[in-house]
Design brief:
The protein is α+β, with helices and mostly antiparallel strands. The protein contains 10 helices and 18 strands. It has a 6-stranded antiparallel beta sheet with strand order 2-3-4-5-9-8, covered by helices on one side. Strands 1-11-10-6-7 form a 5-stranded antiparallel beta sheet. The protein has a 5-stranded parallel beta sheet with strand order 16-13-12-17-18, with helices on both faces. The chain starts with 6 loop residues before the first strand and ends with a strand. About 40% of the residues are buried. InterPro entries: Bact_Sigma-Reg, PPM-type-like_dom_sf, PPM-type_phosphatase-like_dom. GO terms for molecular function: phosphatase activity. This is Stage II sporulation protein E. Pfam families: SpoIIE.
Amino acid sequence: MNTSGLFVETVCKQACCGNEAPCGDSFLQRQFPAHGHTVLVLSDGMGHGVKAHLLSTLTASIFMGMAGAPQSIEETARTVMQTLPVCSIRKISYSTFTIVDIDHRSGIVRLIEYDNPQAFVFRGGEPLEIGRKAHPYSHPQTGRTQTFHTGSFAMRRGDRIVLTTDGVTQSGLGTDRYPFGWGRDNVAAYLGELLRGDPSVSPSALAGRILDRAVGNDADIPKDDISCVAVHIREPRKTLLCSCPPSLTSDIASLAERIRTFDGRKIICGHLLAEQIAGYWKTGLRRQLTSTDPELPPQWEIDGVDLTTEGLLTLSKVLEILENYAEMPTGRGPAYHICEILLSSDRIELVVGMRKSNTAAADKETLILRRKVLGAIARTLETRFAKQVVATYL
């Protein structure tokens, strides 16, 4: 099975011990495009509060800093364990960790676990049993033998991976219902119920349900830091956004075909380009009578295109919304609709036309400015929203 095009959607939900920040668990995710890998690290610092937070952050950061090195992930894990400080009394490392290394080229997912609860893997709503291999390791400072475990499986579309710290499995400890804690088996059973009940449940909702249940087990005052990471391996949600006419009139045909066959949402920004595409397709370009945003012109409609809007004014407002997303109130209109589509997508393809205007200087300035705005939108989507953006210039 070709897995190179699959997307890894990941969400981490956390609750702090005693509802007091900071959380003593840390989660990091990083893509390594040159190697075709995605790496996740969930670390649990001993205790809670600032010290635990610093220790777990140190663990996750050290591993992530070494993850792109040529050595094997097992060797990296040994190096991290050797680097970690050790409790002078209990003679154990100050933090535990779970590592997920996803190789998009081979389709192999590798797990490395050190004293965290075993990762949960589900396929088709049922648990997938992953064989583990023990790796005993003698710590150079204490001489104490510590053991980390590794496992692997070939990923498939739809697979779910769930990581937790022991704040989840030990939630409810000492209660009448869970005298020994919620336990891994009960967590697995609950995950199975959720996934079979709603096979399309988002990672955010899934992690949130696990977190809410764990916090509830502790009577809404967590006795430990609680973290749940939910991963969904799926097809990417894609969007194609086209704006500005291409430099060569002959490129209209190839662009129209690209839009027609694109497997995802389609947006055209700019009346002239919309006219050219509609003309090539021999279909109508229909203008809506009113705009739901008084600051922007009305939208158009073309059969086969999800959204067709004016160019510069609309794109400028899209950029404004994205740059001030946390503070911007929810609104209506074409710019908000574009943002909604872009932010619900994983991969965004921009097609930017490079036609040189032979008309008025104002038209030429408008095209140049629109291209600059598109570039700023692409950078904002990549840096602030972690979207994969690919731009093509015609």
